[in-house]
Amino acid sequence: MKYTFTLLVSIAFAIMVSAQETPSNSYEEIPDYPAEFTAETVVARMVDGLGFRYYWATEGLRFEDLSFRPGDEARSTRETLEHIFSLTLVLVNSTRMIPHSSQEVTDLSFEELRAQTLANIAEASQTLKSEGARLEDFQVIFQRGEAQTIFPFWNQINGPIADALWHVGQVVSFRRSSGNPLNPNVQVFTGTVRE
C-alpha cells in the first residue's frame, strides 16, 4: 500500500513538472518578453510574434476559408498553411540541431496541422530562450539524400521566419476575401486581444 501511494505521488509530481517544462503552444496571447536582450531572446520574440499572428490568422477557419484560392495560379489557404508548417519544421529542426528533410503534410487534418505548427513555433522559441543557447549553433541543414547543404542561422531570419510571417499575412487576407475576417480585437502590437 505504501509503495502504491509513493508511486502515485511520484507519477503525479512527474506529470506536474513535465507540464511546467512543456512550452505552451496556444499563443492566444504573446508570452511575456524575456528579462534581457540577447541575440537569442530577440529572435525568440520574433518567433513568439509569429506564433501569436499564426494563432489568430488560423483561429476559426472554416472549410470554405481553407479551400479559398485568390486565383488559378495561387495556393489555397490550406496549401499556404502546409507551406507555413514546412517553414516551421525548418526552424524547429535548426533549433534541435538536426538536418531538415521534406515532409508531406497533406494527410493531416486542419486541426492537426495547426496544432503541430504552433507546437513547432513554441518549441523553437523555448529553445532559443534556454540557458546557453547560441544562434551560431542553430545552423540550417537541408538533407537531400546523402547530401547536406548548411547555412548559418542568419538565413533562418531572412528565410523561414520572414517567409512564414509573410504567408501568415496572406492567410489573413485570404480569410477576409472568403468572408471570415480576422477577429478585430486582436492587437498585434501588444500581443493581446482586446476585451
TrEMBL record:
InterPro entries for this protein: DinB/YfiT-like
Keywords: Signal
Domain of life, source organism: Bacteria
Cleavable signal peptide: 1-19
Name of protein: DinB family protein
Species annotation: Marinoscillum luteum
